[in-house]
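Translate sequence into structure tokens.
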Amino acid sequence: MPTSILQIDSLSKSFGERVLFRDITFGIAEGDKIGLIAPNGAGKTTLLNIIAGREPFDSGSVTFKNDVRVAYLEQSPGFDPQLTVLQACFASGNETALIIARYEQIIASDNHEQLDEVLAQMDLLKAWDHEQRIKQVLSQLKITRVDQKVGELSGGQIKRVALANVLISEPDLIILDEPTNHLDLEMVEWLEDYLSRSSLSLLMVTHDRYFLDRVCSQILEIDQQQIFSYKGNYAYYLEKRDERLSAQTAEADRANNLMRKELDWIRRQPQARGTKAKYRIDAFHELEEKAQNRRKDESIRLATKGSYIGNKIFEAKHVTKDFGDVAITHDFNYIFSRYEKMGIVGNNGTGKSTFVKMLLGLEKPDSGSFDIGETVNFGYYSQEGLQFDEQMKVIDVVQDIAEVIDLGNGNRLTASQFLQHFLFTPDKQHNYVYKLSGGEKRRLHLCTVLIKNPNFLVLDEPTNDLDIVTLTILEDYLHSFKGCLIVISHDRYFMDKVVDHLLIFHGNAEIQDFPGNYSQYRTWKSLQSKSELEAKTSENSEKQSENRKAPVIKTKLTFKEKREFEQLEQEIESLELEKAQLTSDLSSGQLSSDLLIQASNRISELIRLIDEKTTRWLELSEFE
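Result follows.
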């Protein structure tokens, strides 16, 4: 049976009158990979902060097994801006990681005085394999400029550095808060594979449902201040959660029917009542509580009318855009169709956000133009988010934009009703903006875009920091949206549900139009790679077959080739002697640090030369 490494017992946490969770209990064992799900504002990040020792709790206990090493990736990590990227990546304090960081620092500098000492420690800790794994992590997360100051990085780059720091530290338990935010699709898929194969324990908050489904073996859900555990992946969780809610609703219905009878009975009782029927009065209060717990369906379908949009949407004409040496588009042409729902994917830095900013007129192309139809009314949800007046109330933020939204067929929603569709309860609507969580502010930003009733939505990374319930509501909204849509997102599940074709930004102004969703694109790409590999293998086989069948015309060496053959024998022998001497010198421990580096580099060069000359010698020896 796996050993328990963390036990949470009867944990409660509140902020003033607002209770996040009450008396929750669960444990994490070795090898567990757990996803934590809850609506924004329900306390997911607070719970992670409590476990990581960053935040106090009201009551209960958090108990770790002795000597358990824990690494925590915060949603918005922070480092000393004066640290280099290398120092930040190795900031965990792990002894092996620290000595590798020291080695990398010395190699990158002109001062090699302590190299001998560091090499000895590397040998002692058997750090060479560890170094290769670390370099793989840094490479996959596109962390290359290790001497750059953290203060010069973007928020997304800092998140990747923090993730590298967590993975490099080799903890027993990793706690991750939205690890896929700011990662491109290639990185997300690499991380998914890395965590799936790893034997470490994991507690994670993420909105990426494919990631949850493929990595996690258990789901914890915070719901109505309680915690529910599901021993399976995300698909299993959905099935069992539905069963739980159906049972809960049925119980509430039965409670309502009984309560009506009990209410009639209790009203008919005189004030001075004997103790015989006390059990019925107590039972009435229990039934009343059960009936009040009846859940309202939060994912109400919301289909807006959308303002009229004509046949002409936009046409990109010979659009070219560069940023220095980075080409975004080159002579790009495209005619956007009415009611088209396009997804834009690609690695970070390939120009996805720049492309939509050019469409919206926020960025000018170097040449070419976007010809936009007169009826187009854009709604833009930006990656940067909206800067709110923190002292305003939620309802006032939305009412300042529109008092009502037209649903068509004479139906209208007030700003308050619209906010309720996106899970802002009447109480929450009268909260000040500064009291909202990060995810709730993103949800409010979304509401400010949608309530304007645009007919062309441009959404740049809308899924970051939104909870799964909100994402489901948004997906339902977009599915029935009577207008045009462009979505930039790294959320594969979201893209599969809402778009009908893709523009893939490969970088260097290479843009591919694919007629399908992201999963279909991945399947096609996989088949393409397989076909190319098979074609290459077949071509090589044919060449080898031809070579075997081809008559050997050459029968002996020319005079010049004979001289070359004799010289090669002498050169190979000389190179082998030099290699043997350098190998002996490296093992002696008497070389200075500068000579050590020179010798190591020279050996690599000698191996290459010996291989080349030996291959040529073998070719000539066939005719000797």
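Note: Confidence is low (pLDDT under 50) at residues 296-301.
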